[in-house]
């Protein structure tokens, strides 16, 4: 009972905080239209540009502040302020993309954010969309400079795409990625893998053919395989 209250409280605080910063990032308020299906491309792009400006300005200001601080993280690691910035960026872009997906408005912004030379780090369509949106948000209009390097954007895009197809609620986004491990989540997205608890994981496990013995050219029968290969691994197996 206590944990349910904690989860509900966390969700409320998170929702209130993001709503205060970006009120247009939610389905009910994105366009404030009586019928989202009637939204024109011009309407959606106008709202989208407004949201993009808010996100860009916040990331730019916080990045500039980070450069003036003297606190340096150990080599190969980011300090807590930089990690918090990336976590907030992940969550806000995730909310934005989930709303665009839910409203079926991606078609209205695709031409706006699509890059002429898409990167190769994002393999799936969803990951490529996240990469396009991140580049669009983080690119400076005047200089053309991007606030994050392309490898970092590629990693974040794959992480968000992995959470997206697992339908992770946004308050639990960073917790989910942290539990999976951020780098591993990106790797799993590129490899088209699923978490063991997801129905798609069990479905794909059933479709995998039995392995061939090294000393035979014939396909092994399922009964000859160890039983642990014929079922979805449980938490006890790990």
UniProtKB/TrEMBL annotation:
Residue spans of biased composition, Basic and acidic residues class: 69-83, 204-218
Annotated region (Disordered), positions in chain: 58-83, 191-238
Entry protein name: Uncharacterized protein
Organism: Paenirhodobacter enshiensis
Organism placement in taxonomy: Bacteria, Pseudomonadati, Pseudomonadota, Alphaproteobacteria, Rhodobacterales
């Amino acid at each position: 009972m206590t944990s349910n209250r904690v989860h509900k409280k966390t969700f409320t605080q998170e929702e209130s905080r993001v709503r205060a910063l970006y009120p247009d990032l939610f389905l009910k308020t994105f366009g404030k239209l009586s019928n989202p299906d009637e939204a024109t491309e011009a309407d959606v792009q106008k709202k989208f540009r407004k949201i993009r400006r808010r996100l860009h300005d916040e990331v730019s200001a916080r990045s500039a502040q980070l450069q003036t601080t003297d606190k340096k993280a150990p080599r190969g690691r980011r300090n807590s302020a930089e990690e918090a910035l990336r976590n907030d960026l992940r969550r806000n872009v995730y909310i934005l993309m989930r709303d665009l997906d839910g409203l079926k408005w991606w078609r209205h912004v695709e031409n706006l954010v699509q890059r002429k030379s898409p990167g190769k780090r994002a393999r799936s369509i969803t990951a490529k969309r996240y990469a396009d949106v991140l580049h669009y948000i983080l690119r400076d209009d005047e200089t053309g400079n991007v606030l994050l390097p392309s490898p970092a954007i590629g990693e974040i895009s794959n992480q968000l795409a992995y959470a997206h197809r697992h339908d992770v609620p946004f308050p639990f986004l960073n917790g989910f990625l942290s539990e999976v491990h951020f780098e591993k989540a990106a790797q799993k997205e590129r490899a088209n893998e699923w978490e063991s608890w997801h129905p798609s994981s069990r479905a794909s496990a059933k479709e995998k053919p039995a392995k061939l013995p090294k000393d035979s050219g014939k396909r092994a029968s399922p009964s000859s395989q160890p039983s642990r290969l014929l079922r979805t691994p449980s938490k006890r197996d790990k």
